[in-house]
Amino acid sequence: MARLLHSATISIFVLLVVGRCSNAVLTEAEVFWRTALPDSPLPDPIVKLLHPETSSVVNKQPKDDDTVAEAYSLTWLMWGLRSPSAPTTKHSNTAAETSLVNKPKDDYTAAEAFSLTWLMWGLRSPSAPPKQPSSPSRPSRAGRDHSADEYLAKGLFFHEDLVQVGKTLTLYFPVAASAPLGLLPRRVADAIPFSASSLPATLARLGIANDSAQAAAMEETLYMCELPQKAGEAAKFCATSLEALVEGSMAALGTRRIRPVTSGLPRSGAPKQPYTVRAVHPVDGASFVSCHDHDYPYTVYMCHNTPSTRAYMVELEGARSGLAVTVAAICHADTSSWNAEHVSFRILGTKPGGAPVCHYLPYGHNLWVNMEANRSSS
């Protein structure tokens, strides 16, 4: 039976790839979007996730292990947890890992994408330490140098008073590292078990080796998704399909009148440099849900709704390259429940409950806005 399920899953994937090659036919997810959100065009990053075979992510050359270790920590920091160790050794791909469900992916790019989510979560860590991988062959996560976290976070966090025309922010935009399979149709995603307890069965179904780096990353994502809602969060959920992303955001915001906001960034990333603010547009809405993609063979979004949040669309121009981008910026006005050791406080010179902490949304991450009423000033 397991073999039949595995074969059926792969067959569905092949049919999806063939079907997606025709842009004339809408996917089920696109039909759902047009029905649920008729006044909102699909953001470009989501379109590319729905059609991963037509969009290639620009990959950098592999970096050395120390660089991978530094980038790996960003996701942990977004959640405000103490960062575990990054992988310290390279893992060669098995035959299964180079299959459709696990296309080759640059280690540095994957590590950056994996770590960004932790940085933007920014809330108090749970009482129990992160669960350790069950296999001794998986990457070790103990005893890493946390100084790398601060270096990388300096390209993400900033003060709200810098969100003004003429001000300068130093930012870093990582290379996009979307999941190889992109956003699966809901019927396919829902057929794949998504829990830590069912991970061995999921690995077998997707043809991923149990002792691989990909398996360790999947275990980490499942651990984060199963963390209980933390103090300061009005809602928290993980979504494995576009339909689940939209419906989860509607439920978290308590209305069907929502709209998406994303950053207009190059998928190839941009080096850290000063950017001058050319225009600022406050995002008007009653409340917000932020969603960050995480490392998995297919796209998994981790979403949360925190109170006392302000959002802006900020037009920027690079000082050295002249690159023009528009980023969605999130400012958390109430950080009283955040981990006192969160790296943003060291960078900005603040503390829990102090001045607002702001960060931008990287490529592919999205913000959902409650359009029911104008957001009241806080």
TrEMBL record:
<feature type="signal peptide">
    <location>
        <begin position="1"/>
        <end position="24"/>
    </location>
</feature>
<dbReference type="Pfam" id="PF03181">
    <property type="entry name" value="BURP"/>
</dbReference>
<dbReference type="GO" id="GO:0009555">
    <property type="term" value="P:pollen development"/>
</dbReference>
<dbReference type="InterPro" id="IPR004873">
    <property type="entry name" value="BURP_dom"/>
</dbReference>
<dbReference type="InterPro" id="IPR044816">
    <property type="entry name" value="BURP"/>
</dbReference>
<feature type="region of interest" description="Disordered">
    <location>
        <begin position="125"/>
        <end position="145"/>
    </location>
</feature>
<keyword id="KW-0732">Signal</keyword>
<feature type="domain" description="BURP">
    <location>
        <begin position="157"/>
        <end position="371"/>
    </location>
</feature>
<protein>
    <recommendedName>
        <fullName>BURP domain-containing protein</fullName>
    </recommendedName>
</protein>
